[in-house]
Write a structure and sequence with these properties.
With 300 residues, this protein is of the alpha/beta class. It has two domains: 53-132, 60s Ribosomal Protein L30, Chain: A, CATH 3.30.1330; 134-296, SPOUT methyltransferase, trefoil knot domain (Alpha/beta knot, 3-Layer(aba) Sandwich), CATH 3.40.1280. Helix content is 27%, strand content 17%. It has helices spanning 62-71, 92-100, 110-116, 137-141, 160-172, 190-196, 211-220, 260-264, 283-296; strands at 53-55, 58-60, 76-82, 105-108, 125-129, 132-133, 150-154, 177-181, 205-208, 224-228, 247-251, 268-270. The strands form three sheets. A six-stranded parallel β-sheet has the order 9-8-7-11-10-12, with helices on both faces. A four-stranded mixed β-sheet has the order 2-5-3-4. It is elongated, with a radius of gyration of 21 Å. The protein starts with 52 loop residues before the first strand and ends with a helix. The relative contact order is 0.16.
Amino acid sequence: MSGQRRSGPSGRGGGGRRPNGARGRSGPPGSRGAARTGAVRRDGEARASKPKSLGGGQIEGRQAVRELLIAQRRKVHEIWISSELEGDEALDGIVGLARSNRVPVVYVARRRLEAEARSEAPQGVLAKAAELSEIDLAQVLRRRPGTVPFVVAVDGVTDPGNLGAILRSCEGAGVDAVVLPRHRAVHVTPTVAKAAAGAVEHVPIAVVPGLPAALSRMRDAGIWVVGLDDAADRSLFELGDLAAEAVCVVLGAEGAGLSRLVRERCDVICAIPMLGRVESLNVSAAAALAAYEIRRHRPG
């Protein structure tokens, strides 16, 4: 962080926040518009254009398809099941949910299903559905009464299995939203959805043009930005009271870790202590540990 790190609530250093989260701005978060072209849309206004898609139109794997049908958040066009599995009791739940939701079930040859599949092991089941809609960052920043935002941002993760596992952990830990960069990062593919085991149906996802700018907006909104980095000299387990405040945990990309600009936007950089010979955890494992460590300090 340009050679300087913020030390948290008890020692924020120069430029620390005021108690209400303000940073000396003359207007509310997001009100600066001097460099914009066109009208500035207030947070509560409807978007003029059609919501952008995250992907996710094809869902594969038994648990992912089951959660798709249970959530009922988007239209499901049809369910494909391998003809070899017709009558299999293990799929009765999926078939029953599809029928109750009036979703056609189509039995197809295993070879055809596997040719259509985009993940390694579709488990004989896939669904065709409307694509997921991303949320706007303004929705992430808007605080609901009685809630303290808990956000996870992912800095350029490209492996779909990793992103799916991250989303699954975030859903389990009660994360309010996940923020992804639009470029040089994986979004919701069939492999992501399968690895997430249904979490894509429940975790709101915002896709932003640039993660550094999004983190700056979070800071202006009074959200502490906590980056995870193996080289940090502060432990994740030393966050203390900060973990109970509005917080965004930032995960770095596989291998590269946090990018320079993202690191500079973090209030705190901390590491997961490694007591063995291995230097670091996989990003999805780090996400699970960090999300539940933050959750451990929060009510509910």
